[in-house]
Design a protein that fits this description.
The complex is a heterodimer of chains A (438) and B (284). Chain A is built from 14 helices and 14 strands. Chain A is of the alpha/beta class. Chain A folds into 2 domains: 207 residues, Rossmann fold; 169 residues, Rossmann fold. A 7-stranded mixed sheet of chain A has the order 7-6-8-9-10-13-14, sandwiched between helices. In chain A, helix 10 links the parallel strand 8 and strand 9. Chain A is globular. Chain B has a single domain, classed as ABC transporter involved in vitamin B12 uptake, BtuC. Chain B is 75% helix and 3% strand. In chain B, helix 2 crosses helix 8. Chain B has 284 residues and is mostly helical. Classes of the chains: A alpha/beta (438), B mainly alpha (284). Chains A and B meet through helix 1, strand 7, helix 9, helix 10 and helix 11 of A and helix 1, helix 3, helix 4, helix 9 and helix 10 of B.
């Protein structure tokens, strides 16, 4: 029996080692940051750090982001004349004698502390000249502060908390629209539905999770709706639910009692799915449900709910329905899909964009000298044929002033682009049919 | 709307009770807090999910399989881990089950990814009963019925069978029970097994309306602790009543004070009860 016990103990230890090993950090050797790379290195390889959640609760997403950044690396370093982008045509960075770009990946395990130490390691040991990442706003926050301290440019892809660009950081830029911009987009979209389809949407309810993401989204709605009072919008309910929720019965009953025309959701995939199931059970039929970047954008939403996912809407940086309208995006997706096996989705495309933009900024600067790269980032406009906005330009606070999102609605299990009309793949349906008639 | 809130609360209460019954048994008989209880629930949910996904089995078909599997896992947990620490100071067993829970949770994430999964079709899926203004989902109804049946079964097993009486005797006084010729070792293992079977049934019933993911057992087991303390340690009927009280408190509290406070109401009641009656409402 003793033998058996030792065996179990060893098994525990081995499993523990495997789990811990995923996130083990290499010891940082204290060395001052060498900011000016010598010219010899410039002509060979330009190193850029990418900090992602490659293990932990968001590992599934992190791996996809890694594929997207590898796609960018392949496009930059190889020759892809079929893609209409500056860095695709020739191999490497043309203004740096064809220097190759290498993305060095680091895992933050959805842990802000680890994100910080990995940023330090990448800058000090790996000598990266720029940083991208980190998906979680909470991880992007400390990592970008490290970049600020070492005066290295940081380009965030999909982190959406508005707070990130409100810190007054000089070296930080962000591609994705933040939740404040998304809120404006929501109301503009509702106005469009009212004007074009006489949808008669007036009463808005906000359902949000009790954490930084949800609470901030609700604050944005409260602030923004003041500017849309003239259009007849009013807030009829705000329902905050605990971050760990075992059932959403009471929440949905409150939504039902408020009889909203539109529901704004700031929810993750697990709770969002529970809400949809409960909406169905209690037959809650709003005209439109709009979701902040979260559960709705996860393709698992359609997988889990099937036809019950239909008619829900939310902003997305892209959707596979758009590929046929955007040839460059389609070609990028071909390279991405060969690696990942799935189509590129919104957050993934935003991280792809961050990789392209930082490489392009280095190319435009003609050097890896951080100050010049930052100047290029802050002053130049970047072509982004893979976004419906077509371009990326950072404002003084580092926020991309062009919203890269389209409004999508799930119709027959497909994320269709419904607004703006230029990129429409299907017309929006501004009403939920009765749940029994699906 | 108030009626609807009450109905939802009572139904959720039955489900909470079913999770709590297993826990209260171990607690009452062995004085051990099984922190891995929620993880056994999660394994049961995954069992049902995989049988549904890979073999197209309805959750009600996989229910006995899940119950049996968790019975065996629990039985082995006792034999391999708990038996060695049961006579050690109190904290040792607690830490052992805590470690086990972390291990199972991380193993689940490692094996099955952290994705949220659902059993999308079942005998009861998407069906509901409408009674005037009150709408009741059939999955929740089935879970509540299952909970009642399981409670009655366990109650009678403990009260009427020879093994049940041996469990009671061991719970009252282990040493005397031993002197009377009861194999307390076996009694403990069976108690752990029955506790597992309860949570196995609960998991199978809950998988029809609750997402399956590595953390899915955690919140339920926390609520189960509260219910056990509320109902009285080792008291099966107490767990049932405690479950209903907590279910109602959560629903009515969320309705009256705002949904973000629903668990605050639950824990407030818990704090009040243990101040007034440390043995729980139905404890002795």
């Amino acid at each position: 029996m003793k033998k058996f016990f030792s065996l179990i103990l060893v098994l525990f230890l081995v499993a523990g080692l495997i789990l811990a090993g995923c996130g083990q950090q290499k010891q940082a050797q204290e060395q001052p940051a060498q900011q000016n790379q010598d010219t010899k290195q410039e002509t060979q390889t330009v190193k850029i750090g990418a900090i992602l959640p490659l293990s932990g609760s968001a590992a599934a997403t992190g791996v996809k982001l890694k594929y997207a950044i590898e796609t960018a690396q392949e496009i930059i370093n190889g020759e892809h004349p079929e893609i209409n982008m500056e860095l695709a045509k020739s191999a490497g960075l043309p203004n740096l004698n064809g220097a190759k770009v290498e993305f060095i990946f680091a895992d933050h395990q959805a842990n802000p502390e680890v994100a910080k130490s990995e940023a330090e390691r990448l800058i000090q040991n790996e000598k990266v000249v720029g940083l991208i990442g980190c998906y979680h706003s909470s991880a992007t926050k400390p990592a970008s502060q490290v970049a600020e301290r070492f005066q290295i440019p940081f380009v965030a892809g999909s982190s959406s908390s508005a707070a990130l660009t409100e810190r007054g950081l000089k070296w930080f830029t962000r591609i994705a629209p933040h939740d404040g911009m998304e809120t404006v987009l929501f109301f503009d979209y509702l106005k469009f539905l009212n004007e074009k389809y006489s949808a008669g949407i007036k009463k808005v309810a906000v359902v949000y999770i009790d954490n930084e993401y949800g609470v901030h989204a609700f604050e944005m709605v409260k602030k923004t709706i003041e500017n849309y009072k003239a259009d007849g919008f009013e807030l009829v309910a705000d329902i905050k639910y605990p971050a760990n929720v075992s059932n959403v019965d009471t929440e949905v009953q409150k939504v039902k009692a408020a009889k909203p025309d539109a529901i704004f959701h700031a929810s993750y995939i697990g709770d969002m799915t529970q809400f949809v199931k409960k909406y169905k059970e209690l037959n809650v039929v709003p005209k439109v449900v709009l979701s902040y970047c979260g559960g709705y954008q996860d393709p698992q939403f359609v997988v889990n709910l099937g036809k019950d996912a239909d008619y829900f809407s939310g902003p997305n940086a892209t959707t596979s329905a758009l590929f046929s309208k955007m040839p460059d995006l389609e070609k990028i997706n071909e390279i991405y899909k060969a690696k990942s096996g799935v189509d590129i989705d919104g957050p993934t495309l935003e991280d792809f964009a961050s990789a392209m933009v930082i490489a392009e900024a280095i190319n435009k600067a003609g050097t890896t000298e951080p100050a010049k790269v930052l100047e290029a980032l802050k002053t130049q406009e970047f072509a982004a044929p893979y976004f419906v906005s077509g371009k990326i330009k950072f404002g003084d606070d580092g926020q991309n002033i062009h919203s890269a999102s389209v409004m999508t609605q799930i119709q027959n299990g497909i994320y269709e682009a419904v607004w703006p009309t230029d990129y429409q793949t299907k017309e929006p349906i501004p009403a939920f049919p009765d749940w029994s008639k699906r | 709307m108030l009626l609807q809130v009450i109905a939802s609360g009572v139904l959720m209460g039955f489900v909470y009770a079913l999770v709590a019954i297993g826990l209260t048994l171990i607690w009452g008989v062995m004085d051990i807090i099984n922190f891995a209880h929620g993880e056994f629930l999660m394994i049961s949910m995954y069992t049902v999910f995989w049988m549904y996904t890979l073999l197209k089995f309805d959750p009600f078909v996989s229910l006995p399989v899940a119950a049996l599997l968790i019975f065996v896992i629990s039985y082995l947990t006792y034999k391999i881990i708990i038996k060695r620490v049961i006579d050690a100071p109190g904290l040792t067993a607690l830490l052992a089950t805590f470690g086990l829970s972390l291990f199972i949770r991380n193993l689940a994430q490692f094996l099955w990814s952290p994705d949220y999964r659902f059993v999308t079709t079942s005998l009861v899926a998407d069906k509901k009963i409408t009674m005037g203004p009150v709408i009741i989902g059939l999955p929740q109804m089935a879970a509540a019925m299952g909970s009642i049946i399981m409670t009655v079964l366990v109650f009678y097993f403990i009260q009427k069978t020879k093994t049940g009486r041996a469990i009671q005797a061991t719970a009252l006084d282990r040493d005397t029970a031993k002197l009377m010729g009861i194999d307390t070792e076996k009694v403990y293992a069976i108690t752990f097994g029955i506790s597992g079977a309860c949570v196995g049934v609960a998991g199978a019933l809950m998988a029809t309306f609750f997402p399956v993911y590595p953390e899915s057992g955690a919140l339920y087991s926390l609520l189960a602790f509260v219910i056990v303390a509320l109902g009285g340690f080792g008291n099966i009927k107490g767990a049932l009543y405690g479950g209903i009280i907590i279910g109602l408190a959560e629903a009515l509290g969320g309705f009256a004070f705002g949904t973000q406070f629903k668990y605050a109401v639950v824990f407030l009641i818990y704090l009040l009860v243990i101040q007034v009656r440390p043995k729980g409402l139905f404890g002795w």
